[in-house]
N-acetylmuramoyl-L-alanine amidase (Phascolarctobacterium succinatutens CAG:287), 420 residues
Amino acid sequence: MRKIFLLTLLACCMLLGAAAQAAQITDVKWGVNKADVLRIVVDVTDTAGYAVDMDGNTLNLTVNADKGAQVPQSKAVKSSLADSLKIVDKGSYTVVRVPLKQRLLEKSYKAFVLKKDPATGRPFRVVLDVTPRQASYSGSGAATTVVSNRPVVSNRPTKNNSSIKKNTVIKTSTAADKKADKKKSSSKKKNDNKKNTAAAKTETTVNKPVNKSDADKPAVIKGNGRFRTSGGLDGKIITLDAGHGGSDPGAIGSDGTKEKNITLAITKIVKEILEDKGAKVYMTRTTDVDVFGPNASDAEELQARVNVGEKYNSDMFVSLHINSSVNKNVGGFSTYYYPKTDNDLRLAKNIQNKLAANFGVDDLGVRQANFYVIKRISMPAVLVEMCFISNEKELTLMKGQWFQKKTACLIAEGIEQYFA
């Protein structure tokens, strides 16, 4: 089933618009280190998404960029793993195919990106490392996915070699949290993200003023330990929350794209993937509706979402959102948690690690926040911000099926890793 999904994912690369296809591959290089690890480096003129899959004994690296005319269709390779590379121009994307001479074990390959470095003249790069069976490999990849070997902490470097320091992030939110924009224009969220384009960038996010009497209330924590945290996905109960909906469109892009529609589309795909792996999945909403019903207060609507997770005695709760900022240059993934159990942070790290390692966008890290739906629910819970609708490049990406399917797949893999 996973192979079928990945093949579908690769086919969907063609669906991205021309605006997202400005990147061009200028070179494909390879090298072998002393441990016989084969490294393939794809030079790209601009940020580009990518995916990795196995087709029989062929390892495919798909890069969402045009193949430059100067790039050959094949290259000879001297490695115990492969004798050649094939660079296939698919029009709207390019596939680097590696016919393997040996069958790979799981965790035998990983992919990541290196940001453009003007100081050294190095372009944006997509890197694929392939390890032979006899070599020692310490990565955390999976047989059909790509992951990063970088730690997941809030102060780790972003992909542009700058830092988001934990102490420079301010996040205040309460019972009004993500639904605070319901009665105001949703052309932007109540987030004020400031990003310095100098060498050390930081982001500051501040939500709307809060009701202190509500913010001071303790989180609803049952502490009965009924939720399961290991043993694989089979039989686990998961509640997925598609952010906003109904009378609340969420953030709105420059072309009128509504956050509520993107979150619902991605949430449905995550549900399908998890159910295919044996999990029992519930959604707070499956259509464009208010979960509580018409004329609900912010707290009533948010509590209605929490109630779904509690009703089904869920093992985890995952809320999916799209971010927005007055700064149109801010972009990237971030995952929020509230430390009410020993497992909230672990869940956030698992999901963020998958997302951060597999897209050519900024990694804004794992953050602590007191969002209503993750604070007032008893089981481990996270809120995922899947890029910025206010960023034109990311807006173009998130409207495409390629982005939606890939994001959903990575979130599902992060959830699966949590239960492993």
Observations:
- Residues 2-130 form a domain with the Immunoglobulin-like fold (CATH 2.60.40.3500).
- The chain has two domains: 2-130, 166-419.
